[in-house]
Amino acid sequence: MNNNAVISNNAHQDNFFGELKRTRFQYFDTFPSTDNVPAGWVIDYKRELHQWNGAEWINLAQNYVHPDYPLTNNPFQTDQTGGLLLLSQILTNSSGHVIKVAGRNLTNADIVSIFLNDATQSGTYTWSSNKIKTYIENLIGQSLTGALIYQPGGYIPATVKGSMSTPSPITSATIKTGMVWVITANGWVGDEPVSIGDHLIANTDNASNVATNYQIIEKGIPDIVDATDTVKGLIQIATDVEAIVGTDAVKAMTPKSTKAVLDAKIKSRTWQIGDGSSVTFSLTHNWETRNVDYTCYRNADNRRINLSCVPVTENDVQIDVLAPLTPNEYRITLTARLD
After folding, report:
1. Any idea where the domains of the chain sit in the sequence?
2. How many Å is the Cα radius of gyration of the chain?
3. From which domain of life does this come (predicted)?
4. Which of 166, 236, 171, 258 is nearest to 207 (CA)?
5. b/e burial code for range 38-52 (CB count within 10 A of at least 16 → b)
6. Beta strand 85-92 with 98-105: parallel, antiparallel or unpaired?
7. Is this structure's pTM higher than 0.70?
8. β-sheet bridge partners, residue 163
9. What is the pLDDT of residue 317?
């Protein structure tokens, strides 16, 4: 930084309350002379602000003197040897300074309500962790009505029409609405035939072995076949290469493979033409086809222009106009559909 770059003011400076930005106070390693210096001069002395008060330099960083208010009582100033000392009182004066601290030991009377009692549920007692665990498990396993609650182990139906085997819940001693079993063998639920993979759902509590108390959900696809243009079924996704070749009649295209086909089969590119003197322009597209269309617009007004566009090779077209074009006067887009 050039210390010779100084602007001197021989007058007061009024910034009309404008902010003083990116400004530093003058730095000194030793206090400067204060001959004929009025009070109020502020300097940076060894990275701390100091002010000349007319008689001495005042360190502004240490200008605050905290008043002394001895505490009348402070039980926390010594080590606690027994019990649990609690803060019970803090007094301040009108200036907000703490003048008294008091404490007391926690007694049995303070914790009389914190008490283990697994036999009751109230606002006075608490439960043990074992009691809480059992309660939550029972709530989840037995009291969820209306939710589909999967039952491990599956369900083996009756082998005789008109009969029903009783499900065996794993998480509950009684059957609850919403419990669901996966059927693991072919058979009967009352008069309803079921097969492997079907689902049995209880539609009431204590459903027992009454068939009308259950809903049967069939897997719904007894015979899975390949899809055709007349039959619903399974179908395989074509790869991008298969989609581009376009000869596979049994695989389906996705948006990704459709884009790959369009990118491979439909080509398009735009050029700006016009240099102030030429009436012939050669455009190289490298698409290896003469089946090229064009669209041309005048940039000044976006008016469509008809002109001569001749494919001279499988990779080049020639554009001809009657009069020279100004620089970038036209924009022309070539488009081709590849086989």
Report:
1. 27-62, 75-108, 149-222, 226-339
2. 46
3. Bacteria
4. 166
5. eeebebebeeeebbb
6. antiparallel
7. no
8. 190
9. 95
Give the CA count within 13 Å in the CB-facing half-sphere of 279.
4
Whether residue 333 contacts residue 285, with contact meaning beta carbons closer than 8 Å, is answered with: no
Written in H, E and C, the secondary structure of the chain is: CCCCCCCCCCCCCCCCCCCCCCCCCCEECCCCCCCCCCCCCEEEECCEEEEECCCCEEEHHHCCCCCCCCCCCCHHHCCCCCCCEEEEEEEECCCCCEEEEEEEECCHHHHCCCCECCCCCCCCCECCHHHHHHHHHHHHHHCCCCCCEECCCCECCECCCCECCCCCCCCCCCCCCCEEEEECCCEEEECEEECCCCEEEECCCCCCCCHHHEEEECCCCCCCCECCCCCCCECEECCHHHHHHCCCCCEECCHHHHHHHHHHHEEEEEEEECCCCCCEEEEECCCCCCCEEEEEEECCCCEECCCEEEECCCCEEEEECCCCCCCCCEEEEEEEECC
Q: What would the pLDDT profile of 217-268 be if each residue is shown by its tens digit? A: 886 555 556 777 777 777 889 999 998 888 888 888 999 998 888 888 899 9
Output the six-digit token pair for 106.
């926690």
For residues 316 and 231, which has the higher predicted lDDT (pLDDT)?
Answer: 316
